[in-house]
Every structure is written in C-alpha cells, then in structure tokens.
Amino acid sequence: MNKVFLVGRLVSDPEPFTTRNGINQSRITIATQDNRSRNESYFFPCVAWQNAANFINTYLHKGDLVAIDGKLTRRSFVSKEGKTVYITEIVIDMINSIGSKRDNANATNKIPTKSIDQSFPEQVVQQDTSETKSNNNTQQNNNQSSTNDVEWFDEVNKK
Asked: Under a CB-based contact definition with an 8 Å cutoff, are residues 97 and 103 in contact?
C-alpha cells in the first residue's frame, strides 16, 4: 500500500504549470515537524494535477496550513549536463486547507475552509463560517475550536 498523509505549512506560493497537452499542474513544498524531536523539520515536494492543481493555485499561499492525502512516487529525467536526476515526490489525491497565518492574525474574518478530492473530479467542498445568523453561536464555538487547534499546532511546531 502506498499512502501518505501529511499536515504542514506551504513553504512558498504554489508553482503553477501547464503541460504540453494542456493539463494543469501545481508544485508545492510542505514543511512538517517531527513530534518526537521538535527541532527537526522535514520538507516534502508535492505535485497536484488538474482539479487539485486548480484548487491549490486559486486558494493556497505561502504559510497556509494544509492536510494532504496522496501517494509517494519516483521519477527521473536527464539534466542539461547529461546526468540522470531522480526525484521522489508526493502526488496529491486530496488536499484540505486547514488555515493560514492570516486566519490566526484575524480569527473573526476567517476565510472559508476548502478542500478538493481528486477522486471526485470537479468537486470542491466549501464550508463558509458565516452561513446564517441562527448558526452564529454554534459556528463561533466551532471557529474558536478550529482556531485553538491551529494555534496548538503552531505552538507544537515552534518547540
């Protein structure tokens, strides 16, 4: 079984590409930290195709906290110098935007939580935190819980 689950922050803004065949692609690098040794950070190169790439290029930015589900792949190419270069990367099947540094700075104006599941083409799931006034109290409690989770994750990763 080849399955990868990661939660981490985008190291830089997504790099959008279009193949010669017109297929959209996005490359990102996700930084995570080891729970056992908080001094170690790991950087994972990831690639997304088509709908997931469109989602990433539209909604995600440097510093955003994301959760990904994908598979590990290895590819190679010949460099300009004539050497074979091998690359191991994660191909993203599903990605969820958990939050951003902008959310932590201004928790009352949170952007909607979004996700895309590559196994269901053209499907973007969007949960708006300002749906109706009748749900305001419940939503505020949920938002506070989510904000606390993100803050906890940030605190854990700082150590």
From this structure: no
